[in-house]
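dumping this here before i forget
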Amino acid sequence: MNTANKLTMLRVALIPVYLIVLYWGFAGATYVALAIFIVASLTDFVDGYIARHYNQTTDFGKFMDPLADKILVLSSMLWFCSVGRLPAWAVAIVVAREFAVSGLRLVAVDNGRVIAAGWSGKVKTFSTMVCLCLMHLPIPGWLDWVCVAVIAVTTLYSGVEYFVKNKDVLNWSK
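structure:
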């Protein structure tokens, strides 16, 4: 297993540790969870760099890396939802976008086309991870809502952009 894939697997392994720390709720748990979340988030950027720069791109990585990202982000979002700091509608937007874009990619692949990640998707991922990091801190409620708005807007924008740029993939006349 190459270095990029090992980092992806580290991210996957950190997700249950992150959740256990949050739900255990000992003094300082949110700060420990934040540290785990930051390490896991950084592995996303590092493994992507390594895979591209050192030509370590694999089918396993293409499958597992985005899956690990989605599980990490959704795990964090669901925890914030469960403690009342993130509305369920925001989580629903993220889940709906992920299903929609994944479905679009499946249709594209079936037609012999690959839809690569766009910049708006990368901005969405980065801004979501930054906002979730901020939400681990004792920030005022209005800043939670700013984070919710950033997550919702970047998620919606990137989802719409995927469909607008690739509208020809969905041939509505068939």
